[in-house]
Amino acid sequence: MTVDSIEKGIVIDHIKAGKSMEIYQALNLDELDCSVAIIKNVKSNKMGFKDIIKISDTIDLNLDVLGYIDPNITVNIIEDGRRIEKKRLELPEKVVNVAHCKNPRCITSIEQELDHVFRLADRERGIYRCIYCDQKPGKEQ
Ligand SMILES: [Zn+2]
């Protein structure tokens, strides 16, 4: 796989510079067998600098996870060296086991096997709250 172009796969574009590793981990890209290229600090007219992730296979990406991290990211599906689809992301209504509730009194702290579920409480400001205790998520760093 060359860095500039791929024949087939997925290009995750317009990632805020420095965020690519967080996305790599959140999407479990380390578990893939295909090639994954992380290109950091690419010059962008719109953003100054951005990161790009290229995956040499069309896998099922969890778009909710991406939208939760940054809804401005774009996902391009490439086939035969051409972009056949551009997916726009938005903040998902809820995320399951992406963020974790840090409230020690929350039921998710007591019942370890419970899913951590956050619901979008304020779309305008992108604020999520735990469905059990209303706490905002402590984002994993
Ligand atoms: Zn909670």
How would you describe this structure to a colleague?
The protein has 141 residues and is mainly beta. The protein has two domains: 9-88, Aspartate carbamoyltransferase regulatory subunit, N-terminal domain (Alpha-Beta Plaits), CATH 3.30.70; 94-130, no CATH class. Helices cover 13% and strands 36% of the residues. The protein has helices spanning 20-26, 63-69, 107-110, and strands at residues 9-16, 36-44, 48-55, 74-79, 82-88, 94-96, 117-122, 127-130. The protein is elongated and about 50 Å long. 21% of the residues are buried. Keywords: Metal-binding, Pyrimidine biosynthesis, Zinc. InterPro entries: Asp_carbamoyltransf_reg_N, Asp_carbamoylTrfase_reg, Asp_carbamoyltrfase_reg_C, Asp_carbatrfase_reg_C_sf, Asp_carbatrfase_reg_N_sf. Residues 2-89 form the Aspartate carbamoyltransferase regulatory subunit N-terminal domain. Pfam families: PyrI, PyrI_C.
Radius of gyration: 17 Å
Order of SSEs, N→C?
Answer: EHEEHEEEHEE
Give the spatial strand order of the biggest sheet: 2-3-1-4-5
Q: How many domain regions?
A: 2
Report how far apart the termini are: 29 Å
**CATH architectural type of the largest domain:** 2-Layer Sandwich
What's the story with the biggest beta sheet?
5 strands, antiparallel
Residue share in β-strands:
35-45%
SS summary, helix count: 3
Supply the CATH superfamily name of the largest domain. Aspartate carbamoyltransferase regulatory subunit, N-terminal domain
Assign the CATH class of the largest domain.
Alpha Beta
Estimated structural class: mainly beta
Shape: elongated
Poorly predicted spans? none
Helix content: 10-25%
Mean pLDDT: 92
GO molecular function: metal ion binding
Domain Aspartate carbamoyltransferase regulatory subunit C-terminal: 94-136
Keywords: Metal-binding, Pyrimidine biosynthesis, Zinc
Domain Aspartate carbamoyltransferase regulatory subunit N-terminal: 2-89
